[in-house]
Recover the amino acids of this structure.
């Protein structure tokens, strides 16, 4: 029987290279799309896009979308959707304002209360979805209306602010520096270089492990190219930020979230189970996976991240407004799909979703800089979303 | 005789695999042409090339149908020429009626308004041709698989088929239904309709085929003519696997111990029609080291019994007792059943067995993720080792453990499902049609694995519709009919006739 295996899988020679590209088109495609879009706007805005101040702005502007995209990716991989995140985010912003500004609660206490309330909101929605099998679309549509309403109740139609200073710093502050060099934030640069080194080291290590078990899937040229590109991008981004005011605090929060959730999604049994449930719930259940509990947890987590995004957003505006979070759920969902997740569940990566969010963010920012009206911006973003998903489906059909 | 179809030099590759290399196939007008080969030999792929699932340009080589070169770009192209394929997995819409399914996409209508009386009249004619006694208004979901298969053929006939392709049509049918289907093929042949029949059941092939083409590893090995020579099953097997197989079943040397797994008065009701008992007061036991078979017709309730035992995965109002080594155990949820080392390998690999979008590597450890993890963190290296081990052990034909299971051949998907449960290290393993769609050589390997598990003192329950398989591997056989156990036979006393008579004596199947 062993001889059957050996004779069977004859790799089709040098087409392995092409084959790899074809099966992994999506992952590389999105990266190239981001680079192309950035290059386009860099030229179209006459170099403003990548000016340090604007890059700092880009990060700050998109932080809350990225924070929520991380949670939404898990929701969508699990085969669901959460339409309520925009409203929850707004509601938590309002709650934080009431707690801190009106009740004078200290910022850490208020923040923890807000995160717990967010998790509880997610848990309640998740309960109906997981254990009562009510479609997530409906539960979270209801949630979207309910929390929008609750937010207006809390705010009584007005904006509340300003926030205490230390709270504002989470969204608009920068990390401190160790040495004073004119025009360069040293600690930021060092941290960025360290991050790049760690990334490269980790991927070298996992490739070496793979190589011990025969040839890795990914051709060497791709591996090297991907690593140089990613490390280069990290260092370039950090350098730009360092020549301005250094790394924003939110960037640190985001980096920790992205790394942490990527690890959970890829390297833990919980992550594996979420992908399995999204891929085939029946098979997952018959393999002993408690799909209800996972669904519940995924929504509770989403609620918590929406709350975090709400805090960051409120801190950035330095007030809670009744408009906060409006239609943000659409940007978040779009980012996740642009990032390669599948509506059917079971497919998608955290990094993909983050890149998707950056694509949306760069387009927003670039088009605003070019003075393109909000009407055109909407249309163009819609078309990009559609194009990304068409590209997905096209690839899938070709591979089949 | 003139040939209706000629495929010349067909080559088709997927990333990492050459599925077909320079394959030739010639089908004469008015013959039943069998296509055989091991799992992953390329049979289904060749038929997908022929029917336009892989459009012209996606493969090399040429297709001549009725003497003309054809370039099919889609299934509807090939259907227009009279080539109809019935896939390994049926493609009927469960909640539509028979008539609606038959004319789906081809509705009897004028100006977009469906002419129902014409539809039903035509359907009745077609059902008569395939000898199916059902109302055209019956919903397909209420039909057994055998009848659904006939509906598929009726649907093909509605399209004025000239060449009918059946990909493992009998793999999920019982004897009676299979025979009915084969008879129908012979009848269609007499009307001048040719067919290509893919099957791993060699007895059926020698029964009806005029000629046989054997594929091995994507190459044409031989074409045997059943009229000019005497072809034995052994000849076919030799060409398929490249060597001769002496026995169909390995010789086990059973060392049977104490009763290990026992079920008492197990009853389960239908999940929707909750007054109906699908499993009715069933009691049985399995000893350590014993392989116990459950025989029965399709719809006897065997899968329902197994799934209701396995974490109440099927049915409503379930009652009864499960004992492991004399102690009552809790199997009320799948995780609890697995924790007690009671496992169930499904018969329906696509719906209940695999996460199709994921590779072999992720599917194999799914029921025992803790086995490849330290705490919560997955150990990738261990995961790869495990997947590699089972790929070798089960000879899963693939480009590597990274191949998505959706792209594996049917039989190899089945092997992944079995691997998953072997890795869960069961003490009691319930196997539901474990060799469905598996080639002769690989079947032998699976029987060997069953024997090995038994030799390690595990208790095995084997549900199968293939009587020879039950008779060849089990130590004891229970017979189930209409939700009840109607007999028990030690292997020494069991025979196909005895089992059938037990079923018939207790009335018609549900
Ligand atoms: N879409 C695909 N992508 C990659 N490989 C594929 C794809 N489809 C089929 N293959 C490979 O092509 C080979 C032939 O598969 P095919 O389904 O034709 O086998 P088969 O002879 O029908 O086997 P079985 O008897 O198990 O049904 C297998 O090795 C399979 O893994
Ligand atoms: Mg096949």
């Amino acid at each position: 029987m062993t001889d059957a295996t050996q004779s069977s899988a004859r790799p089709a020679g040098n087409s392995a290279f092409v084959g790899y590209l074809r099966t992994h088109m999506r992952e590389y495609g999105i990266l190239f799309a981001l680079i192309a879009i950035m290059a386009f706007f860099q030229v179209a805005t006459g170099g403003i896009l990548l000016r340090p101040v604007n890059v700092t702005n880009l990060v700050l502007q998109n932080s809350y979308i990225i924070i929520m995209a991380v949670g939404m990716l898990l929701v969508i991989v699990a085969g669901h959707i959460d339409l309520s995140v925009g409203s929850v985010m707004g509601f938590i912003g309002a709650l934080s304002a009431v707690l801190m500004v009106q009740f004078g609660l200290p910022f850490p206490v208020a923040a923890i209360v807000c995160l717990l309330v967010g998790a509880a909101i997610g848990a309640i929605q998740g309960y109906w979805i997981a254990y009562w099998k009510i479609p997530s679309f409906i539960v979270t549509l209801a949630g979207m209306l309910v929390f929008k309403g609750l937010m207006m109740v809390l705010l009584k139609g007005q904006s509340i602010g300003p926030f205490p200073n230390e709270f504002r710093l989470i969204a608009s502050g920068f990390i401190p520096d160790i040495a004073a060099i004119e025009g360069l934030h040293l600690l930021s640069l060092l941290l960025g270089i360290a991050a790049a080194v760690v990334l490269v080291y980790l991927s070298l290590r996992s490739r070496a492990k793979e190589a011990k078990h025969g040839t890795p899937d990914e051709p060497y040229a791709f591996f090297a190219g991907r690593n140089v590109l990613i490390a280069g991008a990290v260092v370039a981004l950090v350098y730009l930020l360092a020549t301005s005011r250094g790394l924003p605090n939110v960037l640190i929060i985001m980096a920790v979230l992205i790394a942490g959730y990527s690890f959970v999604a890829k390297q833990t049994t919980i992550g594996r189970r979420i992908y399995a449930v999204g891929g085939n719930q029946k098979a997952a259940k018959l393999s002993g996976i408690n799909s209800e509990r996972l669904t519940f947890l995924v929504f509770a987590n989403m609620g918590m991240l929406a709350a975090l995004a709400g805090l960051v957003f409120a801190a950035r505006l330095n007030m809670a407004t009744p408009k906060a979070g409006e239609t943000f759920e659409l940007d978040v969902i779009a980012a996740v799909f642009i990032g390669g997740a599948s509506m059917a569940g079971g497919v998608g990566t955290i990094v993909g979703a983050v890149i998707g969010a950056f694509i949306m963010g760069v387009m927003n920012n670039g088009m605003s800089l070019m003075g393109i009206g909000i009407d055109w911006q909407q249309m163009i973003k819609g078309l990009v979303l559609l194009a990304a998903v068409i590209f997905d489906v096209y690839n899938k059909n070709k591979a089949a | 005789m003139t040939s209706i179809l000629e495929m010349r030099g067909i080559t088709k590759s997927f990333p990492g695999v050459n599925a077909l290399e320079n394959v030739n196939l010639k089908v004469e007008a008015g013959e039943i042409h069998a296509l055989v080969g091991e799992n992953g030999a390329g049979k289904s792929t060749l038929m997908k090339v022929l029917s336009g699932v892989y459009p012209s340009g996606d493969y090399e080589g040429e297709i001549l149908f009725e003497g003309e070169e054809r370039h099919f770009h889609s299934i509807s192209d090939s259907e227009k020429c009279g080539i109809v394929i019935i896939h390994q997995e049926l493609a009927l819409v469960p909640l539509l009626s028979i008539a609606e399914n038959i004319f789906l996409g081809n509705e009897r209508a004028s100006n977009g308004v469906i002419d129902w009386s014409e539809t039903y009249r035509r359907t009745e004619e077609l059902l008569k041709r395939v000898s199916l006694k059902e109302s055209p208004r019956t919903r397909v979901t209420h039909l057994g698989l055998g009848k659904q298969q006939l509906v598929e053929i009726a649907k093909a006939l509605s399209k004025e088929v000239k060449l009918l392709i059946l990909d493992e049509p009998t793999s999920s049918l019982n004897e009676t239904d299979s025979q009915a289907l084969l008879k129908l093929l012979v009848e269609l042949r007499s009307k001048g309709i040719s067919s290509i029949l893919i099957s791993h059941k060699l007895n059926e092939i020698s029964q009806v085929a005029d000629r046989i083409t054997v594929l091995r590893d994507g190459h044409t090995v031989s074409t045997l003519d059943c009229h000019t020579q005497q072809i034995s099953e052994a000849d076919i097997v030799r060409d398929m696997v490249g060597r001769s197989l002496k026995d169909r079943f390995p010789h086990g040397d059973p060392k049977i111990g104490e009763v290990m797994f026992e079920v008492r008065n197990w009853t389960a009701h239908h999940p929707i029609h909750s007054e109906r008992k699908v499993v009715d007061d069933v009691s049985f036991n399995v000893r350590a080291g014993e392989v116990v078979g459950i025989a029965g017709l399709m719809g006897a309730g065997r899968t329902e019994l197994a799934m209701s035992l396995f974490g109440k995965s099927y049915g409503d109002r379930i009652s009864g007792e499960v004992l492991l080594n004399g102690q009552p155990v809790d199997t009320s949820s799948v995780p609890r059943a697995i924790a007690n080392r009671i496992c169930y390998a499904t018969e329906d690999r696509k719906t209940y067995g695999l996460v199709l979008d994921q590779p072999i590597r992720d599917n194999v450890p799914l029921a025992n993720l803790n086995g490849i993890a330290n705490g919560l963190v997955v150990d990738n290296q261990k995961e790869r080792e495990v997947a590699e081990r089972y790929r070798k052990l089960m000879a899963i034909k693939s480009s590597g453990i990274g191949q998505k299971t959706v792209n594996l051949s049917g039989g190899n998907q089945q092997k992944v499902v079995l691997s998953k449960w072997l890795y869960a290290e069961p003490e009691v393993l319930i196997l539901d049609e474990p060799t469905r769609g598996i080639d002769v050589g690989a079947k032998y390997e699976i029987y060997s694995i069953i024997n090995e598990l038994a030799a390690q003192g595990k208790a095995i329950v084997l549900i199968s519709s293939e009587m020879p398989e039950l008779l060849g591997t089990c130590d004891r056989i229970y017979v189930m009919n209409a939700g009840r156990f109607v007999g028990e036979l030690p292997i020494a006393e069991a025979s196909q006739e005895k089992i059938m008579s037990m079923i018939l004596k207790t009335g018609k199947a549900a």
About this structure: Strands of chain A lie at 180-181, 184-185. Chain A touches chain B through 47 residues (CB under 8 Å). The first strand of chain A starts at residue 180 and ends at 181.
